[in-house]
Amino acid sequence: MQAVKIVGVGQIEVKDVPIPVPGDNEVLVKLKASALCRSDLHLYHGESVFEDSDIDGSTITPGHEPCGVVEKVGKNVQSVKPGDRVAVYLAYGCSSCSYCLAGDTMLCDKFRCMGFDLDGGHADYLVTPEYNCLPLPDEMTFLQGAVSTDVGGTLYTACRELGVDGTQTVVIFGIGPMGCGGVLMAKGYGAKVIAIDVDPQRLKLAQELGADIVINPKETDSVAEIKRLTKGMGADVAIDCTGSQIAQNNALDCVKPRGKVGFIGESKSCTINPSDQFIRKLIDLKGLWYFNRADWNEITDFIIRNNVAIEKISSHTFPIEEAAEAFKLFDSRVTQKVVFLWD
């Protein structure tokens, strides 16, 4: 089978490797779609994603947003069978701690991530524990399923955790793939959505996805404009998908007292004014990262029931043989999601 390997900084090779064999409680999945993520680019640039990992990234097949068809199952597998359509949950844990039992495997002390600590989905086949197989509804394509995991699941959960509903104004900072997911999910919840980005093409896409208002902070003071649009009150909810200190501060500044702010974009540090931006406004600030495994059916039901056009998050598709070109294009930041597809 073919598998993508990052063999050096900015260097991709598609190698022939043996098809893996599922062990006890494991499943062999024939991949049909696997989405690239910005975190894949950390490996592409020779950077770590999880600082405590001691795995040599050049030996690992990346990809943590895959979908496919169960090809074979190992001993003791009971919940899936050959022919089942599945998405794959990225988090691997101990399976017995309180976090794993509650479905928050990414919080387990023994957390490992598919595509970083062990082989992921940018390959013809993938072996994964039975527990990590998520049923893919017949109404969803494999591409839709792939982008419904990391992006769809994370942003659905973000909107739910922040209490988004049809009475609210929600601001999304950064209209990359995550921000696009934020626009789609917030509109699915019925909210009025304001999209913020410095790229005119991304703002145009935000409008196509349903954003009610777009603001380019290079041209307009975004916080002042949000206050004007909300009659001086401020937004109900703001979600930062950039990891930029400027956007994080603007998210805190643009919400009204008792507003809610979510941080999704990864960053190492951020300086804020806790008294004025946070304490005296009684703001709720939440860290938002991936979704609880038990929520998968709820997430896919929401997407199907509300006709969420999750596939529009993907702007380009490639066969696995063209992985080097796909990574290079995705790294240029002129795309939204890039997805590998198999016939």
Automatic annotation (TrEMBL):
It holds the Pfam family ADH_N. PROSITE patterns: ADH_ZINC. GO terms for molecular function: oxidoreductase activity; zinc ion binding. Its cofactor is Zn(2+). Residues 8-340 form the Enoyl reductase (ER) domain. Keywords: Metal-binding, Oxidoreductase, Zinc. Belongs to the zinc-containing alcohol dehydrogenase family. This is Oxidoreductase. It comes from Paenibacillus abyssi.
